[in-house]
Amino acid sequence: MSRRLGSIGALLAVVLLVSCTDSATPTNPDREPAAMPPARASAGENLSINSFFGFPFADTANTPSTGVAAWQLFQAGTGVLSNFTILNSTNPSSAVIATTLGTGNGILAINNGAGGTAGAFTVNGASNPATAIQVGTQGTGNALNASIINSASTAQVIKATSSGLGFVAFLQNTNPSNTAPTLKVFNSGPGVAGEFSGLNPASSAPTLFASTNGTGDALKAQTSGSGFAARFFALGPTGRGVLVSTNGGAGLQVIGGSKNAVVATSSGARALHAEEAAEVWFTDYGFGQLTRGRAHLTIDPTFAETVRLDLPYHVFLQPYGPAQLYVENRGVNGFEVVARDGAQNAEFSWRLVATRRGFEGRRLDRAPWADHDPNLR
Hints:
Elements: H1 2-19, E1 45-47, E2 71-73, E3 260-265, E4 268-273, E5 281-289, E6 294-298, H2 301-304, E7 314-320, E8 323-328, E9 334-342, E10 347-355
Parallel strand pairs: 1-2
Antiparallel strand pairs: 3-4, 5-10, 6-9, 7-10, 8-9
């Protein structure tokens, strides 16, 4: 009989330890943790918010059916459901570690309420350089997968806001053999796939900056529809269109199409096509008039800085009167126009074409990057 009473007493002690619903605390809160053995709970057991749970806690659950949690906490009030805090400021360990060896989530956060987020991560230390949330994977799946299930929702799938001086978003691919894009955006709706806006009118920083150290494109825009692959708008009176800057390499390359200046006419917008040349030329135009059959033309010194006038250059003449003209004494500062016959005081126009400085000897440059372009014809 005494042995049975001893077993019942031990069982009651465990029940009181795990399921006590009053707010009483241990009679000796300063005692060493080893004085209280790790608490244990049965798989699927519900614990009220007022339950006292001794720590460290250790248990291995064998849930009887799918969907039953090994440990469940319910909060009927307005306070936090659970709080895990590391008080030692030099402790490098994580406050919570969730690990799974199965196919489910390590952490699953669900919010069924009308407000609040399913998960919020905040770094409160102003001088703390650590990231608020870090996501990584060593598997073959996505490190981060975010989605909105409600098809009527107008919220953003991912929203990043920064009040600091750093990047709002930093995307980096450190695998040198990875040929996939660092950022890829798809949109199946009628809206734009991506929008980058600089809202500070005093900012001189670019709204979008794309950079690469490899042989691929820093920025690629592509469309399979009837629209433009890219549009650039300068809406203000002082705005500019597109600037292409290279260090002697290929500048603006148009494959399979033309380069146009579009102007307004009484019959609608019209495209004026740019003239192309086999070599890299700069050209200047001007007017002149003969005096007793001769005229000396001085080349604009600013234009002269952009071309090689010490190399042979072209001068084309058009008289505006009954005169036959030719050019002699071409030099780095100017040239002379002479009347072979006809009016000795005729007016004329001239066009000078010279090699662009720094592009001497360039002619019909190869463009191997376009050899297999589908639009080349």
